[in-house]
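Q: Convert this sequence to structure tokens.
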Amino acid sequence: MKLWGGRFTKETNRLVHNFNASISFDQKFYRQDIRGSIAHVTMLAKQGILSETDRDIIINGLKGILSDIENGTLEFSPESEDIHSFIEQNLIERVGEAGKRLHTGRSRNDQVALDMKLYTRDELDEIDALLKNLLTSILKVMEEHLETYMPGFTHLQKAQPITLSHHFGAYFEMFRRDRSRICDIRSRMNLCPLGSGALAGTTYPLDRDYTASLLEFDGPTLNSMDSVSDRDYLIELLSALSTIMMHLSRFSEEIIIWNSNEYRFVEIDDSYSTGSSIMPQKKNPDIAELVRGKTGRVYGALMSLLTTMKGIPLAYNKDMQEDKELSFDAIDTVKGCLTLFTGMIDTMKFNQSVMESSAKNGFTNATDAADYLVNHGVPFRDAHGIVGQLVLFCIEKNISLDDMSLEEFQAISPVFEKDIYEAISLKTCVEKRTTIGAPGKEAMIRVIENCKDYLNL
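A:
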């Protein structure tokens, strides 16, 4: 029986029921729905709208339903329209007349708005914890590889020498910002919609502040129409999740490149790789590739919800039911990707000698050779041209700048002296960059301490 069936003389067409029903996906809300109902009847009894006896009967019935769902003795019924109907119908079957008073002073509109907020808030906390785990893994690499030299890139071309610690530090900053966005969303959304009714509140003397406090909200929402039709926080969430996935995808792309035979910077653990069904030599970075691929899936959820909401007048419309499957899928996708990506990072091996050799052979110290000339009185523009000649010479000889003899240096510019070798060593190139944010060890140690303080480690 439908909770709204009194107005209708015909049963809902089966196809219409299936199209309209949300129990197949909003069953995820059962904990939040029961928690909200317990808070609601607690408030109703406080206000004298419901007797304490009925309150206790309803709460005990709801707790029994929760326990039976958790232990598997109560299964969700596809005949129920939604999770709210399922729980209320089961409650009435269990406790009788008192159960019919559960819905006093509320609508399914403010009920579903509450459930979605409670669910989203719980998921935000889980995502934040997963981001912290990933940041902790990144920080471990930063601490262990302060002197692991590698090329830094622009345009996918070797540019200047950095350290693996510095490279991973860039991703630490990205995911740190992601946590900040998650925190902002949680703070901004933390107002309770329960008590807004269908769109215009209710004539019952509800204490919305009390309900909000029971459910750990900062207070009640201040406009009942907005309360039941607000999906801004979900759009913000999907935007933040899209940014997290973008960062994971960039990181995955680099790991995929680094794992290739041409680079060999990293070796992904067997437990996070797969092979080929036909080529026995293959070891594929499937986890990184799937993370990269699933990014588009989360982007799609954001664009879908933005499109759904763009033409909806106040207040609630059934279109808004489309928010749930999109958000559920995006949340589950991001949580899965964060968990697997963190495991991949934790088990990955870094080929330090290959990284260092790549930095040397990529002329990443060319800028420092130019700086050497400038420090010996050569105008920068002339120094730039001289080092360009050095690089051209090395390319023809198939050697690095470090491999040139002093005579070869001086044949191009007599300004070069023996100290050029120390000036262009990878260690010197990196370590003399000591300003905060630079890759030098001194600067990186300061950054790592900042990261530890941030993570409370």
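Residues 108-144 form the longest helix (37 residues).
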